[in-house]
Amino acid sequence: MLSGFIISVLVCLTAVALDHWLGEPRRFHPLVGFGSAANWLERRLNPASHAEPKALRQPLLMGVLAVATLLAPLMLVAVLAVLLLPAHILVMTDVIVLWLTLSLRGLREHAMAVAEPLEAGNLPVARQQLARIVSRQTDSLDESAVASAATESVLENGADAVFASLFWFLVAGIPGVVLHRAVNTLDAMWGYRNERFLLYGRCAARLDDGLNWIPARLTALTYAVLGNTATALTAWREQAPAWDSLNAGPVMAAGAGALGVSLGGPAPYATGLKQRPVLGKGPRPDAGTVLAAIRLLERGVALWLITLAVAALMAYLQSGGA
Question: Which of 1, 171, 196, 286 could form a disulfide with 48 if both were Cys (CB 3.0 to 4.6 A apart)?
Answer without folding.
Answer: 196
